[in-house]
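To assess whether ligand presence alters the predicted conformation, the chain was also submitted together with iron/sulfur cluster. Input:
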Amino acid sequence: MNRPFHGSPARVDDPASGPWMGLDRVGLGERFVQWGYNPVHAGPVLRSLLTRGALMEPDGSARWPQGLRERLEEGLAAEEAEVIHRAEAPDGTVKLLLRFPDGATVESVLMPDYRSDRAAGCLSSQVGCAMGCDFCATAQSFFRRNLTVVEILHQFLALRREAVALGRRLQTVVFMGMGEPLLNLTAVLGAVRRIGDNALGGLGWRQITVSTVGIVPGIESLDHSGLNVNLAVSLHAPDEETRRQLLPMARHFPVGDILAAADRFQSRRPQPVVIQYCLLDGVNDSPAHAEGLARLFRDRGMHVNLLRYNPTGIGLRGIAYRPSPEPVVEVFGEILRRSGVVAHVRRSRGQGIDAACGQLRRTAG
Ligand code: SF4
């Protein structure tokens, strides 16, 4: 794989001296022993954090020993991600701009479900992005650095708290915010292992989706991780020529190689891989494109999500993309479904506050 796609290496969260929030149950138990406390409290501490987004001490005999809570809070305060901007769209979508101690900022989004007690979260994996997808606002803020496990967890906790305040439960998370998650896989997997720890009241693996623009070695590494998370692949075109116009990284990973890696991933899991396809007026939305897509997916058992484009202004190549008109979207979907492909048109959320797919930036929008 070529060097430009590696980004900077993930900062490893040191189990001996790094932030306590980056530790798993065993690591936190060891930290408690170092601090002179019983390691048995590690599980309840992490459970309260992962389920409520805050340190909630139990009553009665299960109370934490004197001084433990203060010590934990001290550690949290030193690492805390500050929410410096919050915007709420008319559809209830909430966008948070978080700032980390070094001044780096990322956006995270909470999307209310149609069920009144649930919500989905969208997490960022990098500060900016090096992939340069032409229709994406994040691409315009370029790549600054990878996020750490702790920084990804801070986003998760901020969304948990936001959901609790709105009377909803954070039910699913997707790594579809800023950045390419598979180029920061060490940190993303570290966060996923904590978020997906069912014993701590976190989400299950199946409630977590990792999305990629098609980094083949990353898909293979995620596959070999053995984690039963969902995989989403942003394809956006069935042919190399159109894809390379939209996604500069496409010249490194042909569609055939991406789908072969996705086939292997899917063959080891019960759930289908999801293909993301953003429909752009006059670019990738012709019947010929739909037929090409149908040929790729009619026998693969993968699901295709047709996404409405959320305008982000002029792209890096100087093109102002437009969303495909409604009748074109209908015809496109119909061609796929007639060929036996499971295809859904996805609603766009949070447009009024630039919180929709492809609209996230490093500053408040
Ligand atoms: S669409 Fe995703 S991978 Fe592409 S530039 Fe935007 S954030 Fe990066």
